[in-house]
Specification:
4 helices; about 80% helix; mainly alpha
Length: about 130
Amino acid sequence: MQALSNILLLIHSYWRWVVVVLLLVTFIKMLIGWVSRSGWGDLDTNLTKWLGMSLGIQFLLGLLVLILNVVTVGTAYIQSAAVIEHTVSNFIAVILGSLSFKRAPVTTRFRNKTIALLLAVVFIYRAVAVVGGW
C-alpha cells in the first residue's frame, strides 16, 4: 500500500506543473480580457474548463495520497498541521479556480475570474510552501 501511495505522490508532484502552467496561462488570458474589454470566446471557456478539471484531478490525487497515508501510517499523519493546512488551502484554491461567473457581464466575468485566480495562486503557493516548497 505504501508503494501505491508513493506512486500517487509522484504523479501528484508532477501534475502540479500542469496546474501551474494552466493557471498562469488562464490568469494572463483573463487579465488581458479584463484590461482590453474583449469578448468572451471559446478559448476563454476552454481554458477555464481545463483549469477546473486539472485542479480537480490534482486535489483528488492529493486526497488519495492522504487517505492511503492515513491507512498506512495511522491517524498521526493527519494530525500534522502542515498536512491539514495543505489540504484546506488547496481545497479553497480548487473552489476559487473553478468559479465560472457565467451569469455576469463579460467585463465583470473577466475581472472576477482574474481576482479569483490570483487568490487561487496565493492559496496554492502557501499550500505548497507549507509542505516543503517547490
